[in-house]
């Protein structure tokens, strides 16, 4: 099954078994609606607790407004729910504390995460916010894989890490922004030092 | 019903373009939520994590959140190699070129090539201190190729010593008298092989025959991955009351071992 065709929005009614399945409706912050199965929702601790607390019946799901997820956009939420549908029913992994953590990225997940880093970044935020343990594991593994064979200079570029000098400059800029007099005082101090003054105060 | 949230994600909605571009867009690591950052750190092997720590002081100060305080560092002084958790190796080698990092894919090993300034030991010490600063873990063991009885006394902070030395019964006696005064407070186990032991001579008043005797088995647990079995020898006590056992000929015919019991 291709990533694009994963059953998130469109549900193949014929494929639904005889027993009644519950599908919840969610809405992204850009008003895109998704229908997600109860079993898929169990991958997200946050959503699972939410729907449990709401206690919706099948009628409620249809009659009441879709559950709004106000801080995740439709593009990201689509990926999240595609992932949840594909992995529904799977056990939630437990961290055994080993370092480096052994995380295999399945083919489906690899294809799903074949996206630009901006979207990957949003996917990680969503996985963290919705508490989807395995999605967080695989997406963070993908970020970690970017470090393979890289030197510190290359890692600074890949992970957008400022150098010590840049950190210092940012700190100075922040201080100056807080106190505009700070720079003037510092310049005056330097000037007096150049003139051979013994004491500034 | 809306899903409540305390941290709006919009502030992180950076303007990333999904269109094709010749260079991949960076992934701003330190804008990830804490648990995601921790997951990324956990997915890196210790050497990758150390290299990451070299990006800046800020990074160096936070990589230990993976729990690296419990890691084991072994330093191979002769080959200038630092091994983390008995598996991940970093070699420090001299070069005439500018200092740089090099990854050998076939060996799956990192090399830190540095421009020689005349004292290669200084570079090793510098890297060890960097590793310790980042991981906040102690060096568990140093492995030397050439140690003599004069510099044996330098290892006073070591927990585990495994040496190939040519010591006489008298040398071992001198060392043990020093240990008895409490000069090696961290030492838990020591093995010295290739000794020039003779039937004559004594260590703390015990002859070779007494120290080689076998009676009973006791296990000394040094840490969760390392334990050694004592199968006899003679029990002794340091001036501060620490109990220990000296044993000879358990490993080889020329070996001397000291087991220090925690309680």
UniProtKB/TrEMBL annotation, chain A:
Region listing for Disordered, in residue ranges: 166-201
Residues in SKP1 component dimerisation domain copies: 134-178
Function per UniProt: Probable essential component of SCF (SKP1-CUL1-F-box protein) E3 ubiquitin-protein ligase complexes, which mediate the ubiquitination and subsequent proteasomal degradation of target proteins. Regulates cell proliferation during embryonic and larval development.
Keyword check for Mitochondrion: no
The protein's name: Skp1-related protein
Pfam families hit by this protein: Skp1, Skp1_POZ
Organism lineage: Eukaryota, Metazoa, Ecdysozoa, Nematoda, Chromadorea
Residues in coiled coil: none
Keyword annotations of the record: Ubl conjugation pathway
GO term, biological process aspect, one: ubiquitin-dependent protein catabolic process
Pathway it works in: Protein modification; protein ubiquitination
InterPro entries membership: SKP1, SKP1-like, SKP1-like_dim_sf, SKP1/BTB/POZ_sf, Skp1_comp_dimer, Skp1_comp_POZ
Gene3D superfamilies: Potassium Channel Kv1.1, Chain A
TrEMBL record, chain B:
Database matches in InterPro entries: F-box-like_dom_sf, F-box_dom
UniProt-listed Pfam families: F-box
Domain F-box: 26-74
Top-level taxon in the UniProt lineage: Eukaryota
PROSITE patterns per the UniProt record, alphabetical: FBOX (PS50181)
Listed name of the protein: F-box domain-containing protein
Taxonomic source organism: Caenorhabditis brenneri
